[in-house]
Design brief:
Strand content: over 45%
Distance between the termini: 40 Å
Order of helices and strands: EEEEEEEEEEE
Structural class: mainly beta
Number of helices: 0
Number of strands: 11
Length: 124
């Protein structure tokens, strides 16, 4: 059974940093593109960042560009999201996602495997 498990969320103050982790199991992690999405209270889920299976393609939402960094460690079957200079508007449940098709260019709309999410709360 394929699983994605997020960790690293918490309550921080504006300007602080957090690193989210997403551990994958049940399939060959290194073959799939991965992404992070978030959903704030009362809002729809939105794309945050994505990384291709090779690591050569990386995308960020404009709202996090320059503050967040996505990376992957295939040896550990883990994708990370380093979040710096956090703002109250970054408050959301953050979800890890995986592509359904291996070895293809990064496809944000191709993510169909989801973790349960981890809550990030940024106080002002």
């Amino acid at each position: 059974q394929v699983q994605l498990v997020e960790s690293g969320g918490g309550l921080v103050q504006a300007g602080d940093s957090l690193r989210l982790s997403c551990a994958a199991s049940g399939r060959t992690f290194s073959s799939y593109g991965m992404g992070w999405f978030r959903q704030a209270p009362g809002k729809e889920r939105e794309f945050v960042s994505g990384i291709s299976w090779s690591g050569n393609e990386i995308l960020y939402a404009d709202s996090v560009k320059g503050r967040f960094t996505i990376s992957r460690d295939n040896a550990k079957n883990t994708v990370y999201l380093q979040m710096n200079s956090l703002k109250p508007e970054d408050t959301a449940v953050y979800y890890c996602a995986g592509d359904r098709v291996p070895h293809r260019p990064l496809r944000i709309d191709g993510m169909d495997l989801w973790g349960k999410g981890t809550l990030v709360t940024v106080s002002s």
